[in-house]
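Re: folding output
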Amino acid sequence: MTARHATASATLAKSFRQRLRDREVVTACFIKTPAFQHVEIAGASGLDAVVLDTEHASFDPSQLDVCLLAARASGTAGLVRLADQRAETALHALDLGAAGVVVPHVRDAATARAVVAMCRYRDGERGFSNSPRAGGYGAVGMADHVAASDDTVSVICQIEDASAIEHVAEIAAVPGVDCLFIGRADLALSYGVTQLDHPLVDTAITRIIEAGQAAGVATGIFLADDTAVGAYARRGVSCFVIGSDQSWLRSAATQLADRQSRVVANAATRPANLATPSDHPLNTTMDMASSVTLWRQL
């Protein structure tokens, strides 16, 4: 077995939650289109997780169900960003087999404790049933289902309010919180600014990272692309959600449209017999294929 295969095997032996808690670098993307094919593509591309965004996108129960099935089938962790903090909302996602929840606007320790409780059976308030996918449709006994669920379900709290920064150390210290997820856009708005790199936002980010490090909790962040991953990793961030299925598709389509516009413009300014090799139909087709590959490879 090669070193690469050995590393892959060791990774597969760990749950996503354990990798998160060990502060391994994990990479995901948002899925904002309720299409199981997008989840399969992302999972097959080797991403550690997908985050089904039920807060800012439209997923009905049957769509969430099949997308979580696709995550499981493609071997990636299916996380759900919840639309709210209601226990019923989390229960539905977890029963369908979600590997964890991303909970918006966690502003204080009391909210964090409630979030953990709604995701845990032991010392928690999660309603029990082993009849859905999470319990193997009844095949997994109560004790095993309780143990497996409590050990592997990730609880990720979004820190995205100025008021939360004043309590972030207490939030991080709540037992069962696995990750503090930085929401730069909402943080900016709560500080009354519209620049994600504003000093107020950056200072808040530093406080979130320091709180996570002090409590031994991972810190995550959303980035539009991977250009700043290294900089944030050096600051202590280990969980990266990079772009979304829609943003990657838009990027690939825009690049394709730009290239085709240049091809048309070049062709219009040259006689047909002086066409360059890049204008050859085969090369144009290859450019189109490479653009689509951007989405397929995320």
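--- second protein (sequence, then structure) ---
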Amino acid sequence: MTARFEHVDPIRRRIMSAVRGRDTKPEMLVRRLLHSMNYRYRLHRKDLPGHPDVVFGKRKKAIFVHGCFWHRHEGCKKATVPKTRADFWAEKFSRNVERDHEVESKLAEMGWQTLTVWECETKEVGVLQGKLRDFLEAEKLPAAERERLQA
């Protein structure tokens, strides 16, 4: 083991190593919902910054499905902070949030629109379905309506 992990509880290490980066339950729910709404998409395009979870190439739209804990969903009860190794976690969370902002900025510069779906938002499927439809159909709406949705 490297020095970085010397003081990590073996049980904690096993739990954290099991955390998945893709095909998570929230991501799978979003994908199934989009498919049931007759949208077709690509997954994790490696040629785009951040490898968005769901990509609509012709529309130039990308969806990220973020875990509230890892990506620090502001005001969410799932965005807790572990009691041990507080400095490590603060730095890790800060890097995650900074990286998320950088990726969204790069995609915007490339002409892409992004949507972040938070883990906790997947609990209310009807609301989530409306949010996804609004995002994907926004270009078909009049300009004033698009601005209202983005605010």
